[in-house]
Amino acid sequence: MKKFSVILVCVSFSAVTAVAFVLESFKEPVYYSGERVESAVQEAEGQDETEQNQEFEKFKAIREKLPQTEEEVSLIAVGDIMLSRDVATKIYQHNDVNYSFLDTRDYLKTADLVFGNLETPITPGRRILSYEMVFRADPGVENAMRDANFSVLSLANNHTLNFGADGLTDTFDYLTEAGILYSGAGAGEARAWAPVFVETKGIKFAFLSYAQSNFVPAAYRVGTGPIVAAMDKEKMASAVAQAKERADFVIVSMHAGAEYVAAPNRTQTDFARAAVDAGADLVLGHHPHVVESVEIYKGKYIFYSLGNFVFDQMWSYQTQRGLAVKAFFNKWGVSKIELVPVLIENYAKPKILTADQGADILARLGLGMDERICFSWDGEKNDFTQNNRKIFSGVGASYAAAADKLIKLDSDKDGVAEEYLLKNGRFRVKESYKIIWQSPQDWWVDDFALADSTGDGKVDINLSVWKSGSFGASKPFWIEEDDPSVKNHLFVYDYINNEVVPIWQSSNLDQPNCEFDFQDIDNDGNEELVVIEGEYAEDFICEGKHVAVWQWNGWGFSLVWRSPAGDYADLQLEKINGAGYILSDAG
What CATH code is assigned to 31-67+397-586? Predict the structure, then answer.
């Protein structure tokens, strides 16, 4: 008896349509009227298979000529982080060491790397009063920064030595124990000037940090004790050049400039440009406590001051505001930069602002910026609203590209991480160097996502597959003819007992998924399928025409919401303070 399922279930959202995906039938011999189909039908099926193979080979030849790209790496950089004085008081009052990052850590976790300037030594000691100009943070804040996804912190600033050599040494130890790297200071001159290397998704970064020379006492510039790297253009240029030999990208941080002044001075511009001349790909400035302008110098980006990120300077409108920079890197360089204004509330806690709310900050940068389309779920309206982001677009890879991707994850909780690898349209699952499963040769896998798409608490393997033929030999009785053309499908698998097991497979999608991912957009505890939907074209290039959100209903996926028609590309999902955001460039 042939098995099949038709999905006709809807979900209880305000904008829901009937299901668009149909479960592919189980692969059993086809029977009609109780008899097996004989040779004439089998011969016809052989002809159909030949036509399907021809269609797929045509598709594959086109896809293989597209540029092969790896995943981009995202870096969020923020301004000065001061966890002492009134900030420490607020942390104590709320009895929560994470207090300062509660409204921003979701956003910070959307990046592969997070960088900031830690303006506070971490060391035990006395309470610091509101009016004091020496800073000290209680041990434990390093764990809050780790949990907020900080990966590298600059210690090259004018407050890092407020509690002397012991305070700085303690800071080294606490950050190391928390797994956070630090740059611009170290035990000995060589360590302070040495780059910090971080590699992710096959791209290697080097971080170097420096403080304005008059911020660093002479006793802490040379020697074998705790040292802070002071701004010296010749030594910096040599360090950058050496770092460039070992890293794909070099990030330089400088703590310099005049406090509360909205324009960089000569010291800042000379040093930043010298860093770019030496090979730096991005320069990040701190110390003025207000946001300063941005310069594009020889094709590289210099942010002279990101302002405050966590600070208690509530006496000034400008010192309450800062800038988070989200830069995206591929193997060619910076593909785009997203600029997110922040506002510090209650002396201690920054929150993310919309582009409209932070328009004055963005205007100060002096950049010609584009808008990035942004949709977010509005729980009160029970619908999606649009509030676009500002971005500065550089040069990057074409969106019509074939992606390579590698994720390591212990999805079956056996203590051994599996490797999920996509390369040249083939998807493989490996464990302990053994191939567990790979996609058939007559599939082209565009992308994959590891997410609990079916709501059963397990990590599912979700594949966007292009293949010829809707059903093949397991064609349901209501389908008269197979479709030999190459169409897009969504397939869901689980990794169980060292096997990849099919859970759900769609037939041909009416609109192909150009891009897809999963996120709990409406904060209901379940992950939704978020896609950029396109149209089928003769050249097989999927150009996004809608953004859509689908939800698993127990049998398949139901449409929750679809955006107005437009040109969409480069899907990105974020969470900010519990709210889900869908971002896309205009294609």
Answer: 2.115.10
